[in-house]
Write a structure and sequence with these properties.
single chain; 465 residues; alpha+beta; Rossmann fold; Dna Ligase, domain 1; nine-stranded mixed β-sheet; four-stranded parallel β-sheet; 23% strand; ATP-dep_Glu-Cys_Ligase-2
């Protein structure tokens, strides 16, 4: 909100003036009303593996009422860069499962992909609708102290959090209508139509009125609210595996009207649980025979199985090369520098500098399996050093980048700086569209760099002017 010399940044001037007039007590009252409204509406997320007594319990995601503002020029740059990135990632996934030219030209090690746990041999040579593997992507961005945006992570399997973008906006418009008169904030509600359009465009044989369903693991999934909201808002059926059946290589929805053929499945179930006949035989979440129907081309799955090869944290390091290779363009948004620890020189450098590094396990997400060197204890650093020596192929390392900060209302009734990132949602259909803004995530603990909801992070409304 402020420049380094303490002056208010121009886009925040009206906001700062309005909030200053209200004072901390009025802001705290409005914040309490927002949190209670979230609880009433069931806007929740389940936290796992925490150290407190409420571990594995469902709770509201903390919402911070001070919005993050992005100017139109900044957003234009992000929009162009993210469209470029998603195009290249989609081309990479298609290439891996078909021609494999990127391996033949030695741009990325074949072994890194073939041994990846998300690589699906069943997808090799399989043609999918419109060659569209990733109709929905969630790309995580950070901003450095110098103001430049960097891509931190690509989420291409089951990116979550889209519902919170819309609920955050609704809450702000209810509690601060005066601010929306002062600012020209871009509307976000076309985004769900864009997502629905992306899903419908995948229907086999270009069916005009396809039946689209959202396949959820069920009420115990941490992001179940996300599933319910998206199904309701897009007007599609929310189903579990037991609601679907496969007959003659076609998928049907069991309904009170009888069996209805399903054309597109927006699945929020991981690959391994999709079909007990193709993957994990003990899965009770999926649909027996689903992959046979998918291979027969009678149903579309999104995002496609096997897309996890492209959100692997080691593969991330090669995305700038992919952009040059597939698009013959220079990357518009840069990566954070990344060390591949199977490279002996890079591994030794990282081991010598672990106290300044962030180390991540390649295939984990949600803030799990990480070492943040500057805040880690000597014991934690030694443990991670041992893990890296034993299995260097499982980890990547990055220099610690101090994420940009935003003013945040704390539990102590004061406003303090907290680190933030931005998850941008990209929809690929006939065109590529973005929700103007996305989800700003905030690390609520002082000094913390971990913003993930699964680690107790909160969210903010994101205003694109």
């Amino acid at each position: 909100m402020f420049t380094p010399d303490g002056k208010i940044k121009a886009p925040y001037a009206k906001l700062f003036s309005q909030f200053s007039k209200m004072g901390i007590d009025e802001l705290s009252v409005r914040n309490s009303l927002m949190q209670s409204q979230m609880l009433k509406q069931g806007i929740t997320f389940t936290l796992y593996d925490t150290n407190d007594t409420d571990a594995n319990s469902e709770r509201t995601i903390p919402f911070d009422l001070i919005p993050r503002i992005i100017t139109s020029n900044e957003w234009q740059l992000l929009e162009e860069g993210l469209k470029q990135r998603v195009r290249a990632l989609n081309m990479f996934i298609k290439d891996v499962y078909h021609e494999q030219n990127i391996f033949k030209d030695n741009l990325i090690p074949r072994k890194m992909i073939i041994t990846n746990p998300y690589f699906q041999p069943d997808m090799v040579g399989l043609n999918i609708p419109n060659n569209n593997y990733i109709p929905l992507s969630g790309i995580d961005l950070i901003r450095s102290e110098t103001g430049e945006f960097y891509v931190l992570e690509d989420n291409l399997r089951n990116p979550s959090g889209l519902s919170y973008v819309y609920k955050n906006r609704d809450l702000m418009m209810q509690r601060f209508p005066e601010l929306f008169f002062e600012y020209q904030v871009r509307d976000i509600h076309q985004g769900l139509n864009d997502l629905l359009g992306s899903l419908r465009s995948l229907a086999p044989n270009n069916k005009q009125d396809p039946l689209v369903v959202l396949l959820t693991p069920g009420v115990h999934n941490s992001a179940y609210y996300d599933h319910v909201f998206l199904a309701q808002e897009m007007g599609i059926e929310l189903v579990e595996g037991r609601d679907l059946t496969v007959i003659d290589q076609k998928v049907y929805l069991k309904s009170v009207e009888g069996l209805r053929q399903v054309d597109v499945i927006y699945r929020r179930i991981d690959d391994d649980f999709l079909d007990p006949l193709a993957f994990r035989p003990d899965s009770l979440l999926g649909v027996p025979g689903l992959m046979n129907a998918y291979r027969a081309g009678t149903v579309a799955l999104t995002n496609a199985p096997g897309t996890g090869i492209a959100d692997d944290k080691a593969v991330y390091a090669y995305v700038p090369k992919m952009i040059r290779y597939y698009l013959n363009e220079e990357p518009i948004i840069q990566n954070v520098p990344t060390y591949i620890l199977t490279n002996q020189e890079e591994k030794e450098f990282v081991l010598d500098n672990l106290s300044t590094m962030v180390v991540k396990e390649r295939t984990l997400s949600g803030g799990y399996g990480m070492l943040i060197g500057p805040t880690a204890s000597e014991t934690e650093i030694m443990e991670f050093a041992q893990k890296i020596k034993q299995h260097p192929e499982r980890f990547i390392a990055q220099p610690t980048i101090k994420l940009s900060c935003s003013p945040t209302l704390t539990n102590h009734k004061n406003i303090a700086p907290r680190h933030i990132d931005l998850r941008a949602f990209v929809f690929m259909g006939e065109d590529i569209q973005l929700v103007p803004g996305g989800l700003t995530r905030v690390a609520l603990r002082e000094g913390s760099l971990v913003v993930n909801s699964s680690q107790g992070g909160g969210t903010k409304d994101t205003w694109v002017l």
